[in-house]
Amino acid sequence: MSSRPDLFVKNDGFWYWKNDEAKKIFFEMLLNHDKRLPKEFIEIQVLYEKILENLEVNGQKIEEIDYVYNK
């Protein structure tokens, strides 16, 4: 298993995204249930996906949601 990507930097005691590409990598890792992420992140992602499966808009169930992150 490869190491986790370097996505964050700590500055003045606070954590920040390393760059805009880091945000994209992180969300792609979540969507793919990447095993390099801590298990808590994956658990949150699974719960989020369950919520999305049950969403309705104007009485219609949402069948598919496209995840797009473009900045």
Oligomer: single chain
Total beta strand runs: 4
- What is the percentage of strand-forming residues? 15-25%
Structural class label: alpha+beta
How far is it from the N-terminal to the C-terminal residue, by CA? Answer: 30 Å
Q: H/E series, N to C?
A: EEHHEE
The helicity comes to 25-40%
Mean pLDDT: 84
Helix count equals: 2
Low-confidence stretches: none
Strand order of the largest sheet: 1-2
> What global shape is seen?
elongated
Number of domains: 1
The largest pleated sheet is described as:
2 strands, antiparallel
In angstroms, what is the radius of gyration? 15 Å
Report on this structure.
Strands 1-2 form a two-stranded antiparallel ribbon. The protein has a two-stranded antiparallel sheet with strand order 3-4. The chain is built from 2 helices and 4 strands. It is elongated. The chain is α+β, with helices and mostly antiparallel strands. It has one domain.
Outline:
The protein is an alpha+beta fold and 71 residues long.
Write the layout of secondary structure elements.
Blueprint: E1 8-11, E2 14-17, H1 20-31, H2 39-53, E3 56-57, E4 60-61
Antiparallel strand pairs: 1-2, 3-4
